[in-house]
Amino acid sequence: MKIGIVGRPHVGKTTVFNALAQSNAEIGGYASTQNINLNTVSVPDERLEPLSEIFQSKEIKTASIDYIDGGGTSRSARTSDIGLMAKAELDTNVLAELRTVDALAHVVRLFEDDTVPHVDGSVNAKRDIESINLEFIFADLTIIEGRLERLEKLLKNQKTPEHQNEFRVLTEFKQTLDSGNPIRSLSISENDEMLIRGYGFLTQKPMLLIFNIGEDQLTIADEIIDQYAIYELLHQTSIIVLAAQLEMEIAQLDSADAVVFMEAMGLKQSAMERFIQTSYELLGLITFFTGGPKETRARTLCKGQTAVEAAGSIHTDFATGFVRTECINWEDLVNCGSYTEAKSKGLLRTEGKTYQVQEGDVLNILANATS
Ligand SMILES: Nc1nc2c(ncn2[C@@H]2O[C@H](COP(=O)(O)OP(=O)(O)O)[C@@H](O)[C@H]2O)c(=O)[nH]1
Ligand SMILES: [Mg+2]
Fold this sequence. Notes:
20% strand, 15 helices, Rossmann fold, 42% helix, six-stranded mixed beta sheet, alpha/beta, binds magnesium ion
């Protein structure tokens, strides 16, 4: 899973990135094509340790999330500085990078700090959200208009069903974007989705709004959540409120100090844990496990995906040669203490290709060699 962190200049994107990725990228700087920050964080999972004991694995492998911090580029900052409402603010290279992500995390500034002036002169969450939405709408429109022009020419020569369909879908997208709405607000059929997947439209991606509050606003965090909860009513949109600067400082402590510090601040879960949980929910992701002497491993899948798709996510050959899978809930397996015990209790099931994998399933996939 890959997530792109975007937002207006100086709202705390890099600070959020550092808090999440537990890294040390330079804050206060302008992002540019040369310094898109990339990082991978592992997704902590308490189920792995007890499972690895059953498998007697040498290694534990967590699932991971890739983050890029690239939105709000140097051009974006400068054009805004001189008061232009720049339409094509985002650097094309940053946009290209963002088109590859699974979800966007938009950092929205709520903290007040006179030493960090807002590029638009004041802190205003609604304005910032609209401004970034517009930027992405414009970026998608640019691609769609170009493609529609090309398709029109192609269709004049030959009316292939593929091109006709693409023309229809893109025309609908254009109308939606022209009226100021993101593509994610539409429901798109699976067939149509296949036609346009390759474009990586930015306004089609699920959106996580991260409201960045100051330490002094922590006591009213719940009221702030209520105030912005309205955004969660939007299609494929989630919100999270966090004090990024404080969370970044916590992320840089060693874990024992971090626990003490978090307790003192009344924080139950780290920013990273909350962010991971919210992103999994937003993207409809579930975790399943595989294990053996070599490794016990957590893997991600979309809700509703099947055993053969799970096999394919491990290796394409596993999908092609898929025979069946043994399947058991992780907790049942841990409670039984061994596969033999689980089998004798009748908790180990055999499932076929179309079985919908459930959160916490442990799979042992049987596949024929295909080459
Ligand atoms: N007071 C305060 N300052 C913050 C907070 N988050 C970020 N900043 C400051 O805002 C400035 C811009 O932060 P940065 O993460 O570089 O923003 P970016 O341009 O969006 O990547 C830096 O000086 C940060 O120290 C916050 O929660 N509170
Ligand atoms: Mg930055």
